[in-house]
Amino acid sequence: MNTEQEVLRAYLEANKRVQATQTDGQIMPLAILNTFLGAALWGEDTETRGEPATLEALASRLDISPTTLSTHLRYLGDKYRADKEGLNLVAVETYDLNRRMKTFRLTKKGRKLASALAYTLLGVQQDEHRTKR
Questions:
Q1: Residue 67 to residue 43: CA distance in whole angstroms
Q2: What pTM was computed for the model?
Q3: What is the CATH number for 48?
Q4: How many structural domains compose the chain?
Q5: E strands along 44-109, which residues?
Q6: What are the DSSP E strand ranges found in 49-95?
Q7: N or C: which end of the chain has fewer CB within 10 A?
Q8: 122/37: higher pLDDT
Q9: Which of 18-22, 42-46, 67-71, 124-128: highest mean pLDDT?
Q10: Residue span of the structural domain in which 100 resides
Q11: Could you tell me if residue 56 is inside a domain?
Q12: Model confidence at 45, in pLDDT bands (50, 70, 90)?
C-alpha cells in the first residue's frame, strides 16, 4: 500500500472513531468536527495563557461567529436541545472572574476521542517518516 493510501486509511479510521462517539443516529457535520478539533487544540493550553480558553477566542481562531460556535458547542456538549442529548465531548462553563464570559474544556470523553484521533493520524505520519528515510 502506498503512502497516499495509508494517509487516506488513517483519515477513514479517524472518521470511524468520531462516528463511534455519536448516539441516536447523530451525524457530526464537518463544521462541528472542526469546532471539536479547535477545542482540542486550543482549549487545553491554559498553562501558557494563564487563564482558561474563552468562547470568544475560540470563535476568532476558528473564524466563525460566536452564535455559530455556541450552536456547535451545544451539539458537542451534554444537551443539544431540550429533547436531544449532545455528544458530551466539550463542557462550557461561566468564567468565575468575569461572569459575562464563557469558557470551554474537553470532557473526559472528549480528551479520549482527541487522543484516539491523534494516535491514529500520528501513527501514519510516523510510518510515512520511516519509509522516507
A1: 18
A2: 0.81
A3: 1.10.10.10
A4: 1
A5: 79-81, 84-85, 90-94, 102-106
A6: 79-81, 84-85, 90-94
A7: C
A8: 37
A9: 67-71
A10: 16-125
A11: yes
A12: low
